[in-house]
Amino acid sequence: MKKIGILLVFTMEGITIRGLNIDDFAVVREYKLDDFIPDEPVMGSMELMEGDGFFDKIIHKEVEKAMLLRSIEGGASFAAFDDKGQIAGVRLGQIFTPETLPP
After folding, report:
1. Hey, which of 7, 15, 16, 89 would disulfide with 11, CB 3.0 to 4.6 Å?
2. Which domain holds residue 42?
């Protein structure tokens, strides 16, 4: 395990686990849209990321901002990458304190 900046990197048997940063947004977004959301029961049942109408696009942007962007920017998210740089799994997290919780 080595530390790069504030991100810890752990590599084992062809898998590298490391913290995410804003440069990873596009690849994490693609992974979530293609490999996670279609099979996730709650997101799938709400159909939040389906459709291409005006309001659908607004909802997509808000979901991306709330679930992806804030999680990645917050520094509490990480992903596992294979030898080819493809995502094997993602853990998105946000740190909340009493000061940052909505009223």
Report:
1. 16
2. 22-86
In a domain, 95, yes or no: no
| Residue 15, helix vs strand vs coil | strand
The DSSP 8-state label assigned to residue 68 in this structure reads I
Two structure tokens written together for 23? 């440069």
Residue with tokens 């030898």: 83
pTM assigned to the model: 0.72
3-class DSSP state of 34? helix
Q: How many other CB atoms are there within 10 angstroms of residue 35's CB atom? A: 15
Determine the Cα–Cα distance for residues 88 and 79; give it in Å rounded to an integer: 7
Count up the domains in the chain and report the number: 1
Contact indicator for 6, 75 with CB cutoff of 8 Å? yes
- pLDDT one-digit tens code per residue, 2-13: 444 455 677 888
